[in-house]
Amino acid sequence: MTAPFCIGVTGHRTLGDQVTVQFVTQAFHDLLSQTQQEHSAGVIALSGLAEGSDTLFAEAALALGIPLEAVIAYEGFEEDFPPGSARQRYQHLLEQCQVVHRLPFHERSDDAYLAVGQWIVDHSELVLVAWNGQSAAGKGGTGDVVAYAQEVGRTILHIHTTEHTIKLLEPANGMTNTNFEEYKLFVEDTARFSERRQTITNTYITVNGAIAGLITFLVRDSGFVNWWLVVTILPLLVFGILICMYWKQLITQYKSLVGLRLNVLREMEMKLPGSVKMYHREDELYPRDSQNMPIPGRGLNFSDLEKRLPLLFIVLYVILGLGLVVGTLLITRGILPSPIVVPKKP
Fold it and tell me: How far apart are CA 240 and CA 72, in angstroms?
């Protein structure tokens, strides 16, 4: 099933005269309507719900029946609006939102406003920008968000608030295609490392299975009465344990190498326009601690599961070794009868 197309907004709070407000409002309506017609899987609108551009965009989306998701900058964001119609307008829009994302800021700050803009850029495939084309007057302004969107290669439609034009903004340095090709190479390289790790696991399972099978055959043949077979079997047990230790070390090394590549891929996803952010979405499947970090050994972490296989074989070898020595000692001294009947030679 195809995911909905996400379209976000950033822009000035104060747009200028009424003519500009009408131009921006109509531009939002037309662009949202066009996007809606082009994507049969649906469209989701992302807005910080601040006064000005954010509010006009949100109202245009709702008027077209497009689901609206809000990104709230900090606790008590309603205090950003003066009491009266402006605050009521915000509260009405908030009530109409399908989802509300609240950022972890406790008070108003430039960092909070910048984080909202970057969050919207990161989660949008297309960003509409109501902007006068000038640098931000302060940290977190529209110019900063536009620069970030260009840096990560997002698709941007610039609704110029002074020239009253609409045009596509190019990514910074025109690196989008290069980033995508590099991303593909990293995906292929990561897949190769994962395949090698799986091959190593399959190989060592086969080797340890053969060792365990040979030990079982020798134990059955000894009947726990031949010390010379015990002396023969113990080196095999030690050899098997050493192989498992080396196997575990290889798995750990491959996990680090694959993890390094996955971290690079996550960074590269943020610079690709229209990326579904597959690795970011995969991260959401893992249980996380209070610091929002993945919990080792939990979730769908196959590396952590693989690391337990050598330990299981080591435990098996230790149990076999102890059972062999203790059993042979007790049986050769006549304390216990042999559980295995060894046929006598004619």
Answer: 58
